[in-house]
Specification:
The chain contains eight helices and four strands, in the order βαααααααββαβ. It is an alpha+beta fold. Strands 1-4-3-2 form a four-stranded mixed sheet.
């Protein structure tokens, strides 16, 4: 038996996320242009790197907003689950883009360490301070809708921007007061290390979703034991749990019952239990009788008419 719920709040949630993503995109793209000009004028790798990072983040946010729009498109005859997984694909693309940014910034940072260049510390400090405020606002907006992989990937980009602004701010202050130029590329590499760790963690979750792994928040053993404890259920086997994207989880299982006549009541109890305790509203449950009571199929043999 198959059941799934259609909830209007899924669509409303996606609309809210899409609006937030678009607003964050406007903030990020606008400030990236300002920061790039200031970084070029001041000769700061931290500012230029952060501007490049923010530019790639603008692409990431645009991709995330587009994915959020696609995810609410209705299911079709071929894509019977809809396009919820498109958000996981967008998160994958954004994570790979983030890795490319980390490699590029580290490459330039090593070059700056080998050949230090003068940096206008005062300009870097002012621009980085403004950028910090912009990124804090964008991160706060995205954190309000940050439970799905797609928005979390976009939030990761913005947090990377925020850390980049912090690095640029510290770099500007140190250069302004001490004149020590290596602080600029060193801080850039430190921030890249932090971003890399977060990106690899997100990639693990993205691959888990795309490979139909069980969501991290759910234990397959716990779900199976709780289902087997429902009255009328003898055992559970062939239990599978996977994510459909957009905060939706699917489940399929074979349910061994004591008496087939009680299946409608058992099915209703299992549906309610899965929805209320684990938030699973899309389940396919197949009833079975114990092996000791096999189902016997009979047919009547009729002599064909002459």
């Amino acid at each position: 038996m198959h059941t799934h719920g259609h909830h209007p709040h899924h669509t409303h949630g996606h609309n809210g996320r899409r609006t937030t993503l678009l607003f964050a995109l406007t903030l990020t793209l606008g400030y990236a242009a300002i920061e790039a000009l200031a970084g070029w004028w001041a000769g700061s790798l931290a500012l230029l790197g952060d501007a490049g990072h923010m530019l790639t983040d603008s692409v990431a946010l645009a991709l995330a907003a587009f994915a959020a729009w696609l995810a609410v498109r209705p299911a079709g005859p071929r894509l019977t689950y809809g396009l919820g997984r498109i958000e996981a694909l967008a998160a994958l693309a954004n994570s790979l883009l983030m890795l490319a940014v980390v490699v590029a910034i580290c490459w330039h940072a090593v070059g700056r360490l080998l050949s230090p260049q003068p940096v206008a510390g005062g300009t870097v400090t002012v621009v980085a301070l403004i950028g910090l405020g912009v990124n804090l606002l964008a991160a706060w907006l995205l954190s309000r809708h940050g439970s799905d992989l797609n928005t979390r990937a976009a939030l990761l980009h913005v947090i990377g921007d925020l850390l980049g602004s912090v690095a640029a701010l510290v770099s500007g202050i140190v250069i302004q007061w001490t004149g020590w130029m290596p602080i600029d590329p060193l801080l850039s590499m430190l921030i890249c290390g932090l971003i890399l760790a977060s990106t690899l963690g997100l990639l693990r979750q993205v691959f888990n979703t795309l490979l139909d792994g069980a969501p991290d928040a759910l234990s397959v053993d716990e779900v199976g034991r709780s289902m087997a404890a429902i009255e009328g259920v003898t055992s559970i086997h062939d239990l599978h749990i996977w994510s459909l994207g957009a905060n939706r989880t699917a489940l399929s299982a074979h349910v061994v019952v004591n008496d087939a006549r009680h299946w409608p009541a058992v099915l209703a109890a299992l549906q309610a239990h899965l929805a209320q305790r684990f938030g699973i509203d899309h389940c396919t449950l197949q009833p079975e009788l114990p092996h000791s009571a096999p189902i016997v199929f009979k047919r009547s043999l009729q002599r064909p008419a002459d």
